[in-house]
Amino acid sequence: MPLHMTKIAFGAESPATLRAWLESQPGEARTSTRYLPKRVADMAGGSLFWIHQHRIVGRSPIIGFEETGTGRHWIRLEPRLIAVRSTPKRAHQGWRYLEDADAPPDLGTGESDDLDAMPPAMLGELARLGLV
């Protein structure tokens, strides 16, 4: 079973803007990290799960990792956002490992998560209160 990682969708105003950014990248999307994961070999076939407003909102399959030439590393991703069942997740700096057993399931084609219909501010407040 592959190992995944989670990362904050920093700078994304919504999951839709995250999707737009990913899909606008030609060939592959890249985000940088300071440290190469020690368990990089376990991440073959894994995904980067994106966190937006304290919720995992989607995933992008990991293509691999590459040195940037400046002492950092690229996380190379397929340029798409696969919708997943929205699940609460605390904010954190950098990235964290996510075991396959703990990863939220993908949403089917045409399926939506009821939480997507809520205004982001309301969803954020409910998440802060631990109600969603």
Short description:
14% of the residues lie in helices and 34% in strands. The protein has helices at 15-23, 120-128; strands spanning 4-8, 29-33, 47-52, 55-67, 73-77, 82-88, 95-98.
Secondary structure topology:
Layout: E1 4-8, H1 15-23, E2 29-33, E3 47-52, E4 55-67, E5 73-77, E6 82-88, E7 95-98, H2 120-128
Parallel strand pairs: 1-3
Antiparallel strand pairs: 1-7, 2-5, 3-4, 4-5, 4-6
**Cα-based radius of gyration, to the nearest Å:** 15 Å
Looking at the overall shape, the CATH architecture is: Roll
CATH class call? Mainly Beta
Low-pLDDT windows of residues:
none
Structural class, by secondary structure, is alpha+beta
Please write the string of helix (H) and strand (E) elements.
EHEEEEEEH
What number is the mean pLDDT? 88
InterPro entries: UCP032025
Region (Disordered): 95-118
Protein name: DUF1489 family protein
Organism: Sphingobium olei
Detailed description of the structure:
The chain is of the alpha+beta class and 132 residues long. The protein has one domain: Archaeosine Trna-guanine Transglycosylase, Chain: A, domain 4 (Roll). 14% of the residues lie in helices and 34% in strands. It has helices at residues 15-23, 120-128, and strands at 4-8, 29-33, 47-52, 55-67, 73-77, 82-88, 95-98. Strands 1, 2, 3, 4, 5, 6 and 7 form a seven-stranded mixed sheet that branches. A hairpin with a 2-residue loop joins β3 (47-52) and β4 (55-67). The longest helix has 9 residues, at 15-23. It is globular, with a radius of gyration of 15 Å.
